[in-house]
Amino acid sequence: MITRLTDNFLQKVYNLGIELHQNFKDLYNFESLNTEFNETYVYVDNNSVLGFIHIQSLVDEINIIDIVVDSSMRKKGIGCSLIEHVFNIYPDKRFILEVSCDNTAALNLYKKLGFVQISVRSKYYNGVDAVVMERKN
Ligand SMILES: CC(C)(COP(=O)(O)OP(=O)(O)OC[C@H]1O[C@@H](n2cnc3c(N)ncnc32)[C@H](O)[C@@H]1OP(=O)(O)O)[C@@H](O)C(=O)NCCC(=O)NCCS
């Protein structure tokens, strides 16, 4: 089941978020993950959070900020399901995201779902290039 983040799942989202930002818990709180423009969805199985996606919605564009799947549950389609869930909520919007050029799993996931590279931010992540991708409707 994929559902909007609720308070009882927040700690697990913090735990997963550490994979992307050591200080994830300092960067976000429940309110900042759920504002008028920020939405977070969790993939829940048997009351366990196996993954989450955090997006920002702008006027005509959805920015995928973070997506993480529990390391023991990867390669089972959960990442795809989370992104497709958001596609279904916003079928008419353009999607954009940014990803490190050495993150093969994420790059492949995004390509599989129709994202294409539109630019590169040189040495954006500690000397590693960031790839900016979009999926037009
Ligand atoms: C990127 C991530 C979210 C993918 O989640 P996932 O649930 O494993 O992805 P899926 O099972 O839905 O895989 C979908 C596609 O992604 C690609 N993919 C996923 N894992 C991959 C891997 N380890 N190597 C290569 N390609 C991979 C494949 O194309 C796959 O399709 P396939 O199964 O038909 O080959 C997950 O690896 C993760 O949490 N990584 C750490 C956090 C991160 O880097 N997030 C992205 C940056 S914000």
Listing every helix as H and every strand as E from the N terminus to the C terminus, the arrangement reads: EHHHEEEHEHEE
| Major sheet size, sense and barrel closure | 7 strands, mixed
> Under the CATH scheme, which architecture would be assigned?
3-Layer(aba) Sandwich
Structural class by sheet pairing and helices: alpha+beta
Question: Quick recap of the structure?
Answer:
Helix content is 27%, strand content 40%.
Topology:
Blueprint: E1 2-4, H1 10-17, H2 24-27, H3 30-33, E2 38-45, E3 48-57, E4 61-69, H4 78-89, E5 94-100, H5 104-112, E6 116-125, E7 128-135
Parallel strand pairs: 4-5
Antiparallel strand pairs: 1-2, 2-3, 3-4, 5-7, 6-7
The protein binds coenzyme A.
Coenzyme A (COA) binds at residues 19-20, 66-69, 74-80, 99, 103-106, 108-109, 112.
Account of the protein in words:
- By secondary structure, the protein is α+β, with helices and mostly antiparallel strands.
- The chain has a single domain, classed as 3-Layer(aba) Sandwich (Aminopeptidase).
- Helices cover 27% and strands 40% of the residues.
- It has five helices and seven strands, in the order E-H-H-H-E-E-E-H-E-H-E-E.
- 26% of the residues are buried.
- The structure holds coenzyme A (COA).
- Residues 19-20, 66-69, 74-80, 99, 103-106, 108-109, 112 line the site of coenzyme A.
